[in-house]
Design brief:
single chain, alpha+beta
Amino acid sequence: MKLYASGYYKKFRCIADKCEHSCCIGWEIDIDENTVRKYQHLNGGYGEVIKNSVSLKDTPHFKLGEYDRCPHLNGQGLCEIILHMGEGYLCDICREHPRFYNYTDVAEVGLGMSCPEAARLILSSPDYAVIEEIGEIHADADELLYNGRALRHEIYELLQDGELSYSVALGKIYEQYSIDAGETGVWLQILDSMEYLNNGHKMLFMNYSSVLRPHGQESDEYLKRFLAYLIYRHCTEAFDREDFVQRLTFCLFCERLLASLICLEKARSLSEVAALASIISEEIEYSDENTLKLMSL
């Protein structure tokens, strides 16, 4: 099956020990069955350390250490499994993060914005609409009953129309799909009911407003690329138009949330806006429960 990705995808490189928000801290790291079997056959040396670090309770996972650190993350922010055993001994999650995959009649891969470096790359890349073949993947093509990629392409054309300002293009998207931004209070109720990894993020999100938006072309470009990323990630696999509109409504809410946070935090630089986008991704996209709550409105 052919594998496709956005134009910026191949530029991504994990910055490892230089990352300000390591994905090896604060997350329970599940281990896939194949890797569990591989670990169970390790003996001696660091292999023994790996084997003893695995909990088989419920879904197999690494036993987190103090401050929810992965037991294999050393004091320099590097992975001891890679240093001692090589990348071939990483579990699927560690090897793939922050990547995600969409499957239709083709496969597409993207980068999740919970990774700060991925967020900076995505928000600084104007080539989000360039979808290129990058290889192949072992997967079965789904029968294409609805072409979400075609509608995604139409929205990208609107966003890239040089004759339209971002606000006008955004208005056309709302109009074309009969989407209403909704009442701020309703969205705040949902945000208040969500589970958060960091309670400070809840306090941040509770400043959401449906009408609060930053001014300036640079902010518009960041928001445009954020919306394009969301549509790529969440709308591609829609199974009919109603599902597509529901997913798009969710994407537009997240765009408005980022717009609110940019105003609240007076974020101007790429790093500042990317940090906020990363928080949204971490608290919403990486929680199926939170995503479902917001997508079901």
